[in-house]
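Comment thread on ticket #2218

A.B. wrote:
> Attaching the input chain for the structure job we discussed in standup.
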Amino acid sequence: MQTIRLAVFPGGFNWPVWVAEELGYFAAQRLEVRVTPIAGSVEQFTGLIQEQQDLAITLFDNLIAYSEGQGEVPLVCEDLVALMASDTRVYPALVTAPHIRSYGDLKGQVLAVDAKRTGYAIVLYAMLEAGGLTPGDYTIESVGGVQQRYHALLEGHHAGALFNSPFEGLLVSKGYNLLETAAGVVGQYQGQVLATRRSWLRGNEAAVLGFMRAFLSALSWIYEPANKTRAMEIFVKYQPGASTDSAQTAFEVLFNANTGMPVDGALNLEGVRTAAKLRERFGVPRKQLQRSMENYLEPACLERALASLARD
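C.D. wrote:
> Ran it. Output below, let me know if you need it in another format.
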């Protein structure tokens, strides 16, 4: 058995990882996957760059930022690469406190992000600009991943933040406002990906392909209607405090046939280019990216993983 250290944000989008563990898909690939839930992208990329983690499920923008010297902390690694998509094909939504009903209402308010220079913060800046606001109109605070932002909004510490499903639906049901989704501002956008370092990939390609096969097999299993009840049980087991109702809400979003997680792990190439354009526009320090988008991708791994699954 080979051990793989995987850093993830807590949340339902880890469902395929839980299924692969629970049903023995990782074990069938002779892998022991040690999952580390992280509080934010700084912790995640510090671990990945300093070789304390092997793989990460993270926003594609984070990968570009830490490759280009635009990360939240002064760490640079030109070795980072995306292997496959691991996200839904829906866009984050700007959810605001009940008294915030327009972009104008956000003047003088504090908004929450994971990190000020990376990830969905870049999308948020584009949305605020399109909504007629300038950086001096609002304050941004780093609070951590989606669960931290969710609780920060509920506790009244912040006026708004970006959320993916099911969090935006949960907030709306509590009286919060969905101000706008990012779709109208950014168009196509690549969200979370499976990422690693090329140097580690070169010495561990068999293990990476095994991980991808197990992940994709778990994803296919979840999409089978006959497996839904068992999938719900796995969600409740691995998601602390989750109920069957919350599992149902997450399932409807994450595994929607049209907008859910791509069963073949395919990256959205137009979305990749959009992420790069937004980083050039809002990254700090502002710069033209030094690497072409192809240098951030390793499509051959996904092609080999899919080909081997087709043969099985």
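A.B. wrote:
> Thanks. Noting for the ticket: The radius of gyration is 19 Å.
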